[in-house]
Amino acid sequence: MCGRYALYGPISRACRQFDVDLGYDDFEIIPRDAPNPFGWTDRYNIAPTQSAPVIHAAGKHHEILAARWGLLPRWIKEPGKLSQPINAKIETAAGKPMFRDAIRRSRVLVPACGFYEWQPVAGGKQPYFIRPAGGEVLFGFGGLLERWNGTDGEVLTFAILTTAANDLVRPIHDRMPVILRPENYAAWLDPGITDPGLVRELASEFPVSRMEAYPVGRAVGNPRTEGPELVERVGFPS
Q: What is the C-alpha to C-alpha distance for residues 234 and 93, in angstroms, rounded to an integer?
């Protein structure tokens, strides 16, 4: 599964990587006080039920939206009586009522600097931070977006798709987020691609050579903790 992740650094990096147009000619001069309706700020411990940025198709370029982590399909009448899943298995999502509409027509990319997984060890669980090798780029997780209309207006919600762990993650956990290869971003976001088989092909295994994992402190287990120290490498035990 994927239950915690981090997103930090300049928005310009995401704009370049995910072809987002914020209306500025030069990404490097985006003012710090520019309108930020999607809540882009340094986050080292994004947890379920929190709002986070997602990348959505918007014509020639893509757009950033703020959505709550925990999927709420539009057809739900009483959301309080329903578990709102944070993850969906790529292998089965197309066949489940909760996910089948979104995986066909409303896929998003969830930008992340990395994600956390916990490995059982003597005396508890050791968290690891798993990120792109070198940490210079972002992951683009495969996500599903739903728009639910409530009494207070439209609510955007999302879930992160998961897949079987690759060789790097498997010693830590048996599942991991679907991580899209950059060459597949445009097709993944294309609402015209609705065939579940093709969607599965776009979510092919992300190369181990482009990832790294290292242990971090156990403070990340508390969703109320924040700060860059959460992604700092530690020795054993932590």
A: 36
pTM: 0.92
Q: Which of 15, 113, 117, 146 is catalytic?
A: 117
What span, in angstroms and rounded, lies between the C-alpha atoms of 164 and 152?
38
Q: Is 15 a catalytic residue?
A: no
What are the pLDDT digits (tens) for 58-110?
Answer: 877 798 999 999 999 887 776 666 778 999 999 999 999 999 999 999 999 99
- Hey, is 188 helix, strand or coil? helix
In the chain, the DSSP E strands lie at 5-7, 43-46, 51-58, 61-69, 87-89, 107-112, 114-121, 124-132, 139-150, 153-164, 175-177, 211-215
Please count the other Cβ atoms lying within 10 Å of the Cβ belonging to residue 132: 17
Catalytic, 136? Answer no
- For residue 186, what is the enclosing H or E element? helix 185-189
Which residues 6+ apart lie within 8 Å of 178 measured at CB?
90, 141, 142, 160, 161, 162, 163, 203
Give the other-Cβ count within 10 Å of 216's Cβ: 21
